[in-house]
Input
Amino acid sequence: MNTDIRLSVGFWQHPKTRKTAKRLGLEGVRSLQILWLWAALNRPDGNLSGMDWEDIELAADWSGEERTFFDFCLGIWIDEAPDGYVLHDWKAHNSWASEADGRSDKARFSRLATVNREAYDQMKAAGINAVSKDDYERLTTVQRPSDDRQTNAGRIVNAPPTPAPSPALTHKDKEGGDNARAHDAHPMPGTPPEQFRGDPDGLNPADSRSAVLVQPFSEPPATVSSMPKRTDCPSKGNPQWPAFSSCWQVYPVQQGKEAAWREWMRLHDNGTLAEPYAIRDAILLLAQEDSRWQRGKIPNMAKWLNAKGWEDQPFKEPAAAPGCTPRDGPPVARTQAQRNKQNLEGIAAFVNAAGRRIADNGYGTNSRIGIGQDVGSLSASPGR
Output
């Protein structure tokens, strides 16, 4: 069946189109295209035989004055033929749509090889490679010897699922060879009539040669998992999502939400997840009192949940020794230039401290052990 037609990009600039729009208005151009679409579905060869002017205007959905559209299109868009009317140059402009019936006949002929191999071979030997719909129905309808009623060999009626799949077909079975006809001629005895192709009324498996045993494959029921899927919306419809969201909102590190949600559901399904209020309170307590969390050393929530971090107590730095002040130390130098800069700053601090001690002990500035008044001017070179 056609689903579209070909329309030239120069259609609206063509003189015939302009004349149509001038005489009939845009409504006439619309009806012309509707007529073409109708023909692609119902008369793909463009032959309008058997239709009069009224039928053509109805197919075009023309709502103007009667015969106006038909009389104008006759000789321009519609031609007269010995058996009626035809669309002007339809096959030339829409060759794909006009050959739709031919393609269907060829496809139907290919299907005939799997339904009636004998007729297919005979027609193939005679040079025939297409079959009409009526001929296909006739060739696929067989006569049953028991009651002389006809049945279609390709139809399956009330085939219930069986507990096991049917045996695998061999190459000859797939091609419709002798093995396939043997299966058709000798169905398994004792099989209920509902599992045979054809009309089940009055079917006798013992003497029927047109019935084919059908054993559709029965798939096992799919297992349902409560784990959330990897998707942009893993929380849709899950009752645990509000509880998880309340804990996620107060967690200091807002990264890895998808992984945290999956870990939350894993612990929930295992029955090892604490109550949401307990998890939320633990997060707030650690954020306020844990010294490592206050320095920014906070794991992602997925890792924290996996380690059951809600059971941890806040970590506090040990008290400093008497006379010493707690020192976190300089930041970690990651490059050689940063390490050189830290070394020079340390030397400068040492020199300044030594100068202060010398001044406190009363040494002169010109003393051999003196450091000098401008020791504080030493600073780190920014370049190295």
